[in-house]
Design a protein that fits this description.
The chain has 320 residues and is an alpha/beta fold. It has nine helices and 14 strands. It has one domain: Glycoside hydrolase/deacetylase (TIM Barrel, Alpha-Beta Barrel). 35% of the residues lie in helices and 17% in strands. It is globular and about 50 Å long.
Length: 320
């Protein structure tokens, strides 16, 4: 049995930092509800599909935006997820720090886009502030975290431990993971314990292009994802972490559904539903942490699937 984590990063952007107070109401609708001429394809749609198949999702909700726009919108997001019986966890994009009405950190007056650019003490403060905002918005039992853009470092894990957050899922070997200070010289693909925190890394794979790719709905075809899940099971991996976003089923302009990605999502959920005897979709709440003694090599996907995905992605881009 393989533990599968379907994780969704839920965040709001105003498509720039000018006139954000005017832009926010529209941005909230766009990134959370995803209205289109064919219906809504944002967060409620994802929740509906997961619940239709009886599957568990982990929704990493970014709360720092509410330090600028108020807690009502954050409470609305938390309510959508919690009322659907899904799991709310903590996600942080420190780009919001200098936009906060009440300062989150003293002396920060410009953008620091990555959490890893803050000291351990500053990270500890920001993580604590984010958890507090989520709790006031109605979230409970927050015990997992993901840094925005996967831009964390080993100090982040220490800051999480100080805040009593047991799990992290920020390590991504295709992004900042290798130079995070976590197990230097080793590509982390299975759970480990570091600095008092249990790291559950993003699942990555070698697609034959000399670089690693993470398991994400917009980045992988359905045949790639299914094949990787079976390979992970056969290799007796302990965890498989998939990435999505709350607005990921929309095209880049966020004005219509991305039919290719919607189809991938539907197929993946159906597959996981049909194969419950092999794959257990779960969250971090109630999880008993486990670690491996030695890190295996990243999973690999055959080059023909890579080629087929490239053609599919080219078709997607043509109709974006």
């Amino acid at each position: 049995m393989l533990d599968v984590f379907f994780t969704v990063d839920v965040e709001i952007w105003c498509d720039g930092w000018h006139n954000i107070d005017e832009k926010f109401p529209g941005a909230f609708r766009k990134y959370i509800y995803g209205p289109t001429a064919k219906g809504d394809y944002g967060l409620p749609y994802q929740l509906q599909v997961l619940n239709h198949y009886g599957l568990k999702g982990v929704f990493f909700v970014e709360p720092l935006f509410s330090s600028r726009f108020g807690e009502q919108s954050l409470a609305e997001i938390v309510g959508l997820v919690a009322e659907s019986g899904q799991e709310v966890q903590l996600h942080l994009h420190p780009e919001w720090v200098d936009e906060s009405i009440v300062p989150l950190l003293s002396g920060v007056q410009s953008k620091r886009n990555h959490l890893r650019n803050f000291s351990t003490a500053e990270q500890t403060t920001l993580i604590g502030a984010g958890a507090s905002l989520l709790e006031r918005a109605g979230a409970s039992n927050i015990n997992a975290f993901r840094a925005g853009g996967f831009a964390f470092n080993k100090d982040t894990l220490s800051a999480l431990a100080t805040n009593g957050i047991l799990f992290d899922s920020s390590y991504n070997a295709s992004r900042f993971g290798p130079d995070s200070g976590v197990m230097p010289g080793v590509v982390v693909v299975e759970p480990i314990e570091c600095a008092g925190t249990f790291e559950y890394p993003m699942t990555v794979f070698n697609d034959g292009t000399q670089s690693l790719r993470h398991a994400q709905l917009t980045s992988c075809s359905y045949p790639e994802m299914e094949g990787l899940l079976w390979r992970a099971l056969e290799a007796e991996r302990s965890a498989f972490v998939i990435l999505s976003h709350g607005s990921e089923l929309l095209n880049r302009a966020k004005n219509r559904p991305d039919d290719v990605v919607v189809n991938r999502f539907q197929k993946l959920c159906s597959f996981l539903d049909r194969n419950r005897d092999s794959f257990r979709l779960r969250g971090f709440q109630g999880l008993k942490p486990g670690t491996v003694q030695q890190q295996p090599l990243p999973l690999a996907s055959p080059i023909w699937k890579t080629g087929a995905r490239m053609l599919e992605q080219a078709w997607r881009r043509k109709f974006q």
